[in-house]
Amino acid sequence: MEKLLNEYREQQCAKIDENLKIVRERINEAAIKSGRTAEDIRLMVVTKTIEPCFINHVIDNSGVTLIGENRVQELLSKKPKLHLDDVEVHLIGHLQTNKVRQVVGEVSTIQSVDRLKVAKEISKQSQKQGITTNVLIEVNIGGEESKFGTTIENAPDLCYQISELPNIKVQGLMTIPPICDDEKVLRQHFSDMKKLFIDIEYKKIDNIYMKILSMGMSSDYYEAILEGANLVRIGSSIFGARQY
Ligand SMILES: *Cc1c(COP(=O)(O)O)cnc(C)c1O
């Protein structure tokens, strides 16, 4: 049994290595097409539902330096088992205000801030701990009812409001675009995000930095990079389809 399990793990790890190589090649290709290089694009490996042994495999063997988790509970229970000495952890899933206290201090960036209430709580809990928490503003670029995120129109105001708060620093924007087969429409969403990113940067708001444009997942990271993403969040293209 033990032997079978080990063999299974080894096969899985070999597959993951292969997938990761392909993802990196495509990132490189899209980066060059967009007038940049692979070094300009940060790869986040999305580790939700993935067992720690596989996460540690990519950390130890493949130079992965950034991972993302969706749920506070899963993140906290997996964290002690992970080899995180040289790795940054971000929260990328929707965050309820009542979970903020548990996650502040456990991640370097919260990518899913979409309303003032949650930002205020992050600020308050960070102040209590004497730290500053980096956040991204999540934008619902397709205006979908089912998705979290602020609107394009509201994003600058939210930045102004957050800029008044202590111990929280906006570092950029994040989005999950609508599922869409039409490459043109998809690229338009990403390019709208890039435009918003530049618009907010030009406003030169105190304490608001537009450094990270987090967009692109397994199905659309190539297009996201072509339109200016500098951080892509990739799970299933590396680990295979998730089993919940
Ligand atoms: C799950 C998830 C991803 C990764 O999705 P894949 O399609 O598996 O690459 C990226 N971003 C967020 C916010 C996610 O929840």
Give the secondary structure arrangement, pairings included.
Elements: H1 2-33, E1 42-46, H2 52-62, E2 66-69, H3 72-78, E3 88-91, H4 100-103, E4 109-113, H5 116-129, E5 133-139, H6 155-163, E6 168-175, H7 183-202, E7 208-214, H8 221-226, E8 231-234, H9 236-239
Parallel strand pairs: 1-2, 1-8, 2-3, 3-4, 4-5, 5-6, 6-7
The protein binds pyridoxal-5'-phosphate.
The site of pyridoxal-5'-phosphate (PLP) has 14 residues, from strand 8 and helix 9.
Features:
globular; TIM Barrel; alpha/beta; 8-stranded parallel beta sheet; 244 residues; binds pyridoxal-5'-phosphate
CATH superfamily: Alanine racemase
Question: Which ligands occur here?
Answer: pyridoxal-5'-phosphate
- The CATH architecture: Alpha-Beta Barrel
| Share of helical residues | 40-55%
- In CATH, the topology is named TIM Barrel
**Ranges with pLDDT <50 over ≥5 residues?**
none
Query: What's the rounded overall pLDDT mean?
Result: 96
Largest sheet, in brief, is: 8 strands, parallel
Rg, please? 18 Å
Shape, per Cα inertia axes: globular
* Main β-sheet, spatial strand arrangement: 7-6-5-4-3-2-1-8
List the secondary-structure elements in sequence, H or E.
HEHEHEHEHEHEHEHEH
Number of strands: 8
Q: What's the CATH class label? A: Alpha Beta
| Subunit arrangement of the protein | single chain
Total number of helices? 9
**Structural class label:** alpha/beta
Classify the beta-strand content into a percent band: 15-25%
Could you say how many structural domains there are in total?
1
Describe this structure in words.
This protein has 244 residues and is α/β, with parallel strands linked by helices. It has a single domain (2-239), classed as Alanine racemase (TIM Barrel), CATH 3.20.20. It has helices at residues 2-33, 52-62, 72-78, 100-103, 116-129, 155-163, 183-202, 221-226, 236-239; strands spanning 42-46, 66-69, 88-91, 109-113, 133-139, 168-175, 208-214, 231-234. Strands 7-6-5-4-3-2-1-8 form an eight-stranded parallel β-sheet. Helix 3 links the parallel strand 2 and strand 3. Helix 1 (2-33) crosses helix 2 (52-62). Residues 46, 48, 70, 92-93, 176, 217-219, 233-237 line the site of pyridoxal-5'-phosphate (PLP).
